[in-house]
């Protein structure tokens, strides 16, 4: 049993119930998330602004090979979620990978995992409210409203939804995901129809020649494809929400495997399929970073109000991301606070069983983003997006390290692996970690943004070390109290 274990699991039908350590931060949650909520949270995590908006600029830079980048990154993202899914079935926890880091890496590991995840979502939240404000400015009726005011309104709306109950959060994510999936399916049906009928798009007939006549699969060589990998990984960020949501569903052993397994075909269909269709309909050079690639295609065939419809969908995707960020960090921070490595107020639960302390802390950081929108509205999005990528890569690496240690303990007979497993351990974990670190290193080849982002790593490391010295006494006292409770 982990030295940081605080209780024993109370799940009667779980074969590990008598031996598996539980997280004190899991107490007090409702189990109101249904299977449809978790499935749609998985879909929502796999489909966001990274596809609806970001694919345009990446297609322009990397060409049709972007589909290959999405496929490769999607495979490794699936490995991460599959590993997390196995850990969830071993012990469901709203603290998710932070709780597993506590068990397999100790409190220092949990501390680093939690605060890097908080860094990811707090900065992503700033990017989201910035994006929402920018998308709202698309409509002329909102152009007179300052960007920072729109950002503040968006934050207030999503905060209110998160504070009511987890069921309301689940419903909001369910309908957000429905909108995104319906939009993608609709576009893909239109794209297939255009290909099948050879209907002209922008004055030219679509088909394979759109790729072969414009430089092939790698029109600008291999390096642009390598450089977009970091952005592609960020597009898959939020897939790990399945692990957090599992702590608030009544039947995680049934819901989680179904949700995790469906991620792979969704990635293949929605990401890879959409990019291949886009490449067959128009040359990569026609797409741009400033416009959704779907809007580009639809406007070329004269679809009325295509820009308005897609702008609404992208706005929905950004709201969904912000909603997920507040939800997940609230749960993660509560798990940390119960161990002493986060502020005490983040452990507080409302009457509706919502950890509002952690949600408000994340919201407070997002308010700083409102200030960023006021000071540098044109640069706010790019600044925080790259910082967030450091958080998500570190989170995924920690998940794979925890899984590798879990498997090693299982081989030693200390724990029992569930039937739902990540294959090929430890090769799969090592390959994924190497790939993620390589993507991080590739950022050095981007002197304008990527290199500056990497230079933040020593600064973040110093802040983490200083913070640990600030909380280690409290963490030690909590751990000693927990061990004393176990001996009773």
UniProtKB/TrEMBL annotation:
It is a multi-pass membrane protein. Residues 1-25 are annotated as: Disordered. Keywords: Amino-acid transport, Cell membrane, Membrane, Transmembrane, Transmembrane helix, Transport. The lineage of its organism: Bacteria, Bacillati, Actinomycetota, Actinomycetes, Kitasatosporales. It is found in: Cell membrane. Signal peptide: none annotated. It comes from the Bacteria. InterPro entries: AA-permease/SLC12A_dom, Amino_acid_permease_CS. GO terms for cellular component: plasma membrane. It comes from Streptomyces cyaneogriseus subsp. noncyanogenus. This is L-asparagine permease. Belongs to the amino acid-polyamine-organocation (APC) superfamily. Amino acid transporter (AAT) (TC 2.A.3.1) family. PANTHER family: GABA PERMEASE (PTHR43495), L-ASPARAGINE PERMEASE (PTHR43495:SF1). The chain crosses the membrane at residues 38-55, 67-89, 110-135, 147-165, 177-197, 217-246, 267-289, 309-333, 354-377, 383-406, 427-444, 450-471. One of its GO terms (biological process) is transmembrane transport. Coiled coil: none annotated.
